[in-house]
Design goal:
alpha/beta, Rossmann fold, eight-stranded mixed beta sheet, four-stranded antiparallel beta sheet, 12 strands, 23% strand, binds adenosine-5'-diphosphate, binds magnesium ion
Length: 310
């Protein structure tokens, strides 16, 4: 994977919000990671850690305060020319937690899914438009009859399929899924995640999968980034993170997951982590390589302490 070119490169991204004349919230404060074609990168962290802000900055709902974002080797973090912006609007798509909020209740599914086509290819032949939508309905496991129905006639899981269909119609290279399945029942979550995996196998699309629930992230992600207070504290393959967590925040997150096996569940010890009293200053750490693609935000001293045997 490493000798391929990344699809998305986020370098030292900062997103600060001015909340008063004197104060600003450093929602994202120097985050770097990359996503390769066809890969799923899971972004995890507690509520308020900056996950949504990262997603929104990447798709340029915000102007980044600092750092750079490269998408398909083009800088999309500053002022974009028309061609770059068009490429971004077509080839990067986002799906949200509440698909209903973004689905116009008075429009039929056909027109909802075709919205991107109508914006970017307004002169498309109506038959071709319909065929494209039907092909996407096949891909997301909905039937052609569904095209003439309205959003309220669908279940939560089906609505999320419509949301995914809407994103897919542009044939994107990257989908940012921000808590896209968090509101669904667990069994439905699994169906939607499996669908996303199937689509990935067929299309080689990449996902930035944002979630606070680690069990689904573990299941879908190739690599994971752990976010805390706007800093990426640890990143690595799903295996590296789950088998050998190094940062105390990652350890506390993982220790909070219940084990399905009652025997090991009885042995499980929740670890608490309090940044304020930890003596750690995220601003002083740097991302240190600890083998493979595994990196931890730490000072030299912290890294030695956290990786000491025994
Ligand atoms: N537009 C905004 N203005 C001011 N503060 C914001 C804004 N958006 C997010 N924040 C703050 O930035 C931090 C990160 O928020 P967010 O990215 O939504 O976290 P997450 O998605 O991980 O829950 C929070 O402290 C939040 O209150
Ligand atoms: Mg969020």
């Amino acid at each position: 994977m490493e000798n391929r070119k990344p699809l998305l490169e986020v370098r030292n991204l900062k997103q600060h919000f001015k909340v008063s004349r004197k104060f600003s919230v450093k929602a994202v404060d120097g985050v770097s990671f990359e996503i390769y074609p066809g890969e799923t990168y899971g972004l995890v962290g507690e509520s308020g850690s900056g996950k949504s802000t990262i997603g929104r900055s990447i798709i340029r709902l915000y102007d980044p305060t600092g750092g750079s974002i490269l998408f398909k080797e083009e800088d999309i973090s500053g002022k974009m020319d028309k061609k770059t912006e068009k490429n971004l609007r077509m080839k990067m798509q986002m799906i949200f937690q509440d698909p209903m909020a973004s689905l116009n209740p008075r429009k039929k599914v056909l027109d909802l899914i075709a919205l991107g086509l109508d914006i970017h290819h307004p002169k498309m032949d109506p038959e071709e438009r319909k065929k494209k939508v039907y092909d996407i309905l096949d891909l997301v496991g909905l039937s052609h009859e569904h095209a003439s129905r309205y959003p309220h006639q669908f279940s939560g899981g089906q609505r999320q399929r419509i949301g995914i269909a809407r994103a897919l119609v542009m044939n994107p290279d990257l989908i940012i899924a921000d808590e896209a399945i968090s509101a669904l029942d667990v069994s439905i979550q699994a169906q939607v995640v499996n669908l996303m995996k199937e689509i990935q196998e067929k299309t080689n699309i990449a996902y930035l999968f944002i979630a606070h629930d680690l069990s689904m992230v573990r299941y879908i992600s190739d690599r994971i980034g752990v976010l805390h207070f706007g800093h990426l504290v640890e990143t690595g393959t799903t295996e590296e993170i789950f088998e050998n967590p190094i940062h105390p925040y990652t350890k506390s997150l993982l220790s909070a997951i219940p084990h399905p096996n009652p025997v090991t569940e009885r042995e499980r010890k929740s670890m608490t982590y309090d940044y304020a009293s930890s003596g750690i200053d995220y601003a002083k750490g740097v991302l240190q390589n600890v083998g493979g693609t595994h990196q931890v935000l730490a000072t030299e001293e912290e890294l030695q302490r956290w990786t000491a045997v025994g």
